[in-house]
Design brief:
Helix content: 40-55%
Shape: globular
Strand content: 15-25%
CATH class of the largest domain: Alpha Beta
Oligomer: single chain
CATH superfamily of the largest domain: OmpA-like domain
Strand order of the largest sheet: 3-4-7-5-6
Largest sheet: 5 strands, mixed
């Protein structure tokens, strides 16, 4: 932890302790636990940096290693309940990865018009449900990754996939998911699910994937790493 963070923590604890003793000598004992809890909350905000030293996130809480499976089981169950209609219509697929990450694949036909990066209003209710569950299970980092088919130039598709991922993230942020928990990425046409030789294949390749990675105690930084499952 950096020196500046330690200074902030020390200042907070001293301030709370001073306030506890100013009016009532007995308040020191009454509020001691509260001061400790507040300091613990600050200590829980562990800031991570990438290899270039850029700040990439702040974890406000972590799940103990032995409890991760249960935590993600519950979150998956809520996603499947809330998004049951979307799954039945094949608008969303929910998959559990080996490391307990949840992968939600969103059919691009229901989220964006062809070649556009503006969300379809009909997709808002689905994102509202998603945001609600993500707020409830806040010990996770959410990676939004855009993909395209191969129609158009590689550079165009790369930029389009990035803008689409950002559009989804912006909507989630505007509906209560903290920005610090969101990561966006575009992979253009580089990771097709099917052949781009047919319209059916291209439709499968046009998608947004949302990876919900648990923040595991002692391994917090892994939650911020880009999902790699191919």
């Amino acid at each position: 932890m950096k020196k500046t963070n330690l200074i902030v923590i020390s200042t907070l604890v001293l301030t709370l302790t001073a306030c506890a003793s100013m009016d009532d000598p007995n308040r020191r004992a009454k509020t001691g636990a509260g001061a400790g809890a507040a300091a613990g909350a600050v200590l829980g905000q562990i800031f991570w940096h990438d290899t270039k030293g850029t700040l990439i996130g702040a974890a406000v809480g972590a799940v103990a290693g032995g409890a991760v499976g249960h935590y993600m089981d519950n979150q998956q169950a809520e996603f499947e309940t809330e998004l049951a209609r979307e799954q039945q219509q094949h608008d969303i697929e929910i998959e559990r990865m080996k490391d307990d990450t949840l992968k939600l694949s969103v059919n691009n036909e229901v989220s964006f018009d062809f070649g556009k990066d503006t969300l379809k209003p009909a997709f808002y209710p689905t994102l509202d449900k998603l945001a609600e569950v993500l707020q409830k299970y806040d010990r996770t980092v959410v990676h939004v990754i855009g993909h395209t088919d191969s129609v158009g130039s590689e550079s165009y598709n790369q930029a389009l996939s990035e803008r689409r991922a950002q559009s989804v993230a912006n909507y989630l942020t505007s509906h209560g998911v903290p920005y610090d928990r969101l990561r966006t990425e575009g992979r253009g046409e580089s990771e097709p699910r099917d052949s781009n030789a047919t319209e059916a294949g291209r439709q499968l390749n046009r998608r947004v994937e949302i990876f919900v990675k648990p923040i595991v105690e002692g391994q917090e930084q892994k939650a911020y790493e880009s999902p790699q499952y191919n």
